[in-house]
Amino acid sequence: SSTMSFSEAEVQSARGAWEKIYVDAEDNGTTVLVRMFTEHPDTKSYFSHFKGMDSAEEMKQSDQIRGHGKRVFTAINDMVQHLDNSEAFLGIVNPLGKKHATQLKIDPKNFRVICDIILQLMEEKFGGDCKASFEKVTNEICTHLNNVYKEAGW
């Protein structure tokens, strides 16, 4: 498994950028999911057990979507706290990837979709520098998740 190559400065600026959006984890996580479902409606098929998926307004109010949005942000937060420790980082990424590949059977391209929406939201709210300092993190997350999928025979 590949190790990560973040300088101390990159880790610090990535964490600074992430903290800004993580302060409102539930609201921002919800915004990210609602955008994903709206802009990529095929992703809704993975959440057929969720109620109130018809309009963006309904989705914003959904306790299920709010809960999942917060879970997504919490998982990323755990990864961000371990950017300087490959072993700990992979300890979070590997089981998460395995679950999405084998149990949930989520197409891995959706991880990139979510990451791109997060970057877009960061840029809208906090500007291009914020987005730029987090881009490398999203690339690492997606690369490692894709590796897990490959190992799972996806």
TrEMBL record:
Any GO molecular function: oxygen carrier activity
InterPro entries to which the protein is assigned, alphabetical: Globin (IPR000971), Globin-like_sf (IPR009050), Globin/Proto (IPR012292), Globin_lamprey/hagfish (IPR013314), Myoglobin (IPR002335)
Keywords assigned by UniProt, alphabetized: Cytoplasm, Heme, Iron, Metal-binding, Muscle protein, Oxidoreductase, Oxygen transport, Transport
Domain spans labelled Globin: 5-150
Organism superkingdom: Eukaryota
Entry-linked Pfam families: Globin
Function per UniProt: Monomeric heme protein which primary function is to store oxygen and facilitate its diffusion within muscle tissues. Reversibly binds oxygen through a pentacoordinated heme iron and enables its timely and efficient release as needed during periods of heightened demand. Depending on the oxidative conditions of tissues and cells, and in addition to its ability to bind oxygen, it also has a nitrite reductase activity whereby it regulates the production of bioactive nitric oxide.
Homology family: Belongs to the globin family.
Protein name: Myoglobin
Gene source species: Probosciger aterrimus (Palm cockatoo)
Gene of this entry: Cygb1
